[in-house]
Amino acid sequence: MKNWEANVRRVTPYTPGEQPDQPDMIKLNTNENPYPPAPGVREALKELDIDAMRLYPDPAAGELVAAIAECYGLEKEQVFVGVGSDDVLAMSFLTFFNSGRPILFPDITYSFYDVWAELFHIPYERPALDENFHIRKEDYFRENGGIIFPNPNAPTGVELPLEEIEEIVARNQDVVVIVDEAYVDFGARSALPLLKKYENLLVVQTFSKSRSLAGMRIGFACGNRKLIRYLNDVKYSFNSYTMDRTALAAGTAAVKDQAYFRETCRKIIETREWTKKELKALGFFFEDSKANFIFASHNECPAQELFQALRERHIYVRYFPKGRTADFLRITIGTQREMEILTDFLRKYLDGRDSRAKK
User: Fold this and answer.
1) What pLDDT shows up at residue 356?
2) Contacts of 72 (CB under 8 A, 6+ apart)
3) In whole angstroms, what is the distance from residue 180 CA to residue 110 CA?
4) Computed over its alpha carbons, how large is the radius of gyration of the chain?
5) Phi, psi of 38 (to 5 degrees)
6) Cα atoms found within 13 Å of the Cα of residue 355, Cβ hemisphere only
7) pLDDT at 15
8) pLDDT of residue 214
9) In Å, how far from its chain's centre is CA 122?
10) How many CA atoms lie within 13 A of 50 on its CB side?
11) Rounded (5°) CA angle 12-326-305
12) Cis status of the peptide bond prior to 155, with omega within 30 of 0
């Protein structure tokens, strides 16, 4: 090893979902929204002042923050924005998890959490989900340096009831509890109403899923004024200008069009419920998902085999080959037509597999 390498911070990085580029593909592997952004986003981008690009953007992201605050009935001082919820969450790890005690998050969850913990040298423990992939609230009733979990969880799609979230927050008021609500708009109950009661709660959401802006990278956190002020202090010590002018304009337009947002979520939920019925009829089983994906396993056909078969047809889903997730596929909900193509392919493949087995 060269001498300089001894001082390099080395971590095992997060592995993002594959981004294939096939003209006939059906992309159901990264939980993107299959519908375009709100119409106002296109208009906002058309109206951008190109000459203004020579100037720095508003470091406080004032217009976007105000739009989010108005949408959720909060004060502007209760909202923090960043470059996708990953940026917001990483900043939150850096800001709030410094006690030296282990933070807690589930053993099966968003796989960036342990990466950030390792990167920032934060000790952590991962209480195991139960046999049905549910969070056990009692596992979080012990001394810790902070708590984070998605709701609904990823990659399972399982929702933790709001009453149980409140129990976790109430029993851990000496640390910050972060609820990562990347998928909450697809049928789960948000923890945002609890902000009025608990100053140790931070709720993080994203524009990447329900608002169709994964390509713009916009995330936000909501909490009491003190939490948000601490987050901004760390942000301004790291990078003052995190949000560019295009993202600010697009995000503001998207959050103002609530009717389009609700309609898009309704269509995805409707297609998800249709897909659940079709998959069950094909021999799949899964916990009830409140996200824009289904975490499914087949009774007879291994997940890896299905993953490869789908891939050869240019239908891309996500496969997590280790541990308890090795027999499951995470299938993003696309358009109704895309899900019909998926289920038709699965039906033909499984029928053919069964016929071959009987010969």
Assistant:
1) 65
2) 192, 222
3) 9
4) 21
5) -55, 145
6) 6
7) 84
8) 97
9) 21
10) 1
11) 115
12) yes
pLDDT at residue 354 in the model: 66
First to last CA, the chain: 58
* Distant-in-sequence, close-in-space partners of 2: CB < 8 Å, separation ≥ 6: none
Give the pLDDT of residue 359. Answer: 59
Look-up of token digits 């995470």: 330
Are the beta carbons of 282 and 319 closer than 8 angstroms?
no
Residue 73's pLDDT is what? 97
Q: CB atoms < 10 A from the CB of 270, how many?
A: 12
The token pair at 336 is: 């109704």
How much is the pLDDT for 65?
A: 98
What are the φ and ψ backbone dihedral angles of 252, each rounded to 5 degrees? -65, -45
CB-based contact 211:35 (threshold 8 Å): no
In the chain, % helix, strand, coil (3-state, to 5) comes to 45, 10, 45
Q: Quickly list DSSP for 139-166.
A: GGSS--S-EEEESS-TTT-PPPPHHHHH
Of 287, 279, 301, 323, the C-alpha closest to 156 is 287
The DSSP code sequence of 222-279 is: E--HHHHHHHHHHHHTT-S--S-HHHHHHHHHHHH-HHHHHHHHHHHHHHHHHHHHHH
pLDDT at 353: 77
Question: Is the sign of the CA dihedral 159, 164, 166, 170 positive or negative?
Answer: negative
Phi, psi of 315 (to 5 degrees): -110, 115
What does the alpha-carbon distance between residue 274 and residue 263 come to, in Å, rounded to a whole number? 17
Tokens 């994964």 — which residue? 214
On whether the CB atoms of residues 200 and 176 are closer than 8 A, the answer is: yes
Distance CA 108, CA 87 (A): 21
Q: Which residues of the chain have pLDDT under 50?
A: none
Q: What is the pLDDT of residue 358?
A: 62
Task: Give the residue ranges of DSSP H helices in the chain.
Answer: 39-46, 62-72, 84-96, 113-119, 162-170, 225-236, 245-256, 258-281, 303-312, 336-358
